[in-house]
Amino acid sequence: MMIIKERNFLAELKAPWTLTETVRAAIFAVLYIAITMAVAPIAYGMAQIRISEALGLVAYDAKYGGRPAAVGVITGGVVVSLFGPAIGLDTIIGFVSGVICLGFAWWAGIKFKGDDLGKVVAGLVYTFVTAFFIGILMLHLMFGLPAWPAFLGVTIGQLISALALGFILLKALEATYKKKELR
C-alpha cells in the first residue's frame, strides 16, 4: 500500500529550490512566452484572450506544475510584458497580479487536495484578480479606458483562457498521468 504524504503550503514554499524545478520553471516560462507571442494580437488590450494563461492553472497541481509552474508563468509574464504596449506598467502590475493569482492557485491545490471544485475556484480567483489588476488598475486608471468594458474584456478573456482552457489542460494532464501509472 502506498503512503500519500500530506502537502503543506509553507513547507513547499520553504523547501530548497532544485535543479529539476529550475528546468521545469524554464519550460513553463518558454511555453508562456511562445504562446503569448504567437497570439499577440489578441493577447493585449481591453478585450484580450491570452491563451497562455491556461498554463497558470497548472500551478494548482504539484505533480504537473506546482511551484515551478507558478515561477515559470510569472517569469514568462514579465518577459512578454516587455513586448506589449504598456511596457513598464504591465511589467509591474502583471508581476503583482501573477504572484497573487499563481500563489493562490498553488495554495488552492493543496487546500482542495486536487479536487475539481478547487480547480474552478482557483480559476475564478485567477480570472477576477487579473481582471481587477489589468482591467481596472492598468487599462482604466493608468490609460483612461472605460472601467467596466476594460474589466469585462479582461474577465471574458480570462474565463476562456485561465479557467476553461486551464481546467481542460489540467484534466488532460491528469488523464495522461493516470495512463502512465496504469502501465
What can you tell me about this protein's structure?
The structure is a single chain. This protein is mostly helical and 183 residues long. It has one domain (19-177). Helix content is 73%, strand content 0%. It has seven helices and no strands. The protein has helices spanning 9-14, 19-38, 40-43, 66-81, 87-111, 116-142, 147-182. The protein is globular. The chain starts with 8 loop residues before the first helix and ends with a helix.
Name the descriptors.
single chain, 183 residues, mainly alpha
Strand residue percentage: under 5%
- What is the CA-based Rg, rounded? 16 Å
- The overall strand count is 0
Overall spatial form: globular
Instruction: Give average pLDDT, whole number.
Output: 92
Helix and strand run? HHHHHHH
How many separate domains make up the residues?
1
Enumerate the spans where pLDDT stays under 50 for 5 or more consecutive residues: none
Question: What does the secondary structure layout of this molecule look like, with pairings?
Answer:
Elements: H1 9-14, H2 19-38, H3 40-43, H4 66-81, H5 87-111, H6 116-142, H7 147-182
Helix pairs in contact: 2-4, 4-5, 5-6, 6-7
What's the short version?
With 183 residues, this protein is an all-alpha fold.
